[in-house]
Amino acid sequence: MNTRSRRHLQEVLEKDPSCYVLITCGQPTEDGQMQVEMTYQGDTTLAAYLLQGAQLFIDQEDNNKEEDYSSSAIRLVTPVSG
Asked: How far apart are CA 12 and CA 62, in angstroms?
């Protein structure tokens, strides 16, 4: 994602006062290095919760592939208690 696209996406996300986490990366170099950037806005605890939920979702997707389930979509629903 180029800098201009990333900046535009951040501007769009910042219009809504909710919490978000944005993680982007560039193409890997020949030696395997990759630039990764993370930006978040909102409550730090909520941002961490979003990251944990995303990791669980990715892990579940990996498990589904390994077990050869043919699921077209899995929706992550995370209840937020206030």
From this structure: 31
Residues 44, 50: Cα–Cα separation, whole Å? 10
- Tell me, what's the pLDDT at 79? 52
Distance (Å, whole) CA 56 – CA 48: 12
Question: ∠ at Cα 80 (74, 81), nearest 5°?
Answer: 150
The structure's pTM equals 0.60
What is the number of residues in the chain?
Answer: 82
Q: What is the dihedral of CA 22, 52, 63, 61, to 10 degrees?
A: -30
Residue 80, CA distances (Å) to 49, 50, 74 in order: 10, 10, 19
